[in-house]
Amino acid sequence: MMWLDRQNQDVVFGDRRSETITVTDRSHGNESGTRTLRIEPDTLIDFRALPYRDGSFKLVAFDPPHLLRAGPRSWLAAKYGKLSDTWQDDLRKGFSECLRVLDVDGVLIFKWNETQVKVAEVLALTPVKPLFGHISGRKGLTHWLVFMKAAA
Fold first, then answer.
1. Number of compact structural domains in the chain
2. Residue 48 CB-density burial (10 A; 0-12 exposed, 13-18 middle, 19+ buried)
């Protein structure tokens, strides 16, 4: 959802899902009461075990699921995915993998919405601290954080 030019040859959009989902959505006067979402990644991947060699990228954008609780036909769960019962370990592995595939001085952009899990809980799972960030969204719950991979 964040990419402005997914067709750019330098962008690889990965997700573990590839599907078309029709879910309940009555928001904003949606008369049909449903919405269809197409998840069409360039490649199927698991962020806990990225299929790329060390130092492959100068920039990685990490936007993992952020919901613990959501109904089975929820628009938000379909759009963003849902955290598992092992979410802390999953995110810890995800951060490690993102940093592994970054080149030295590479940049990691991390997006998190703290509606259900506070960003401080997530940052406790990271091996490095962010350089800076920005809060956005209607309620100020979405955090954009920037990390840089230092030389070993």
1. 1
2. middle
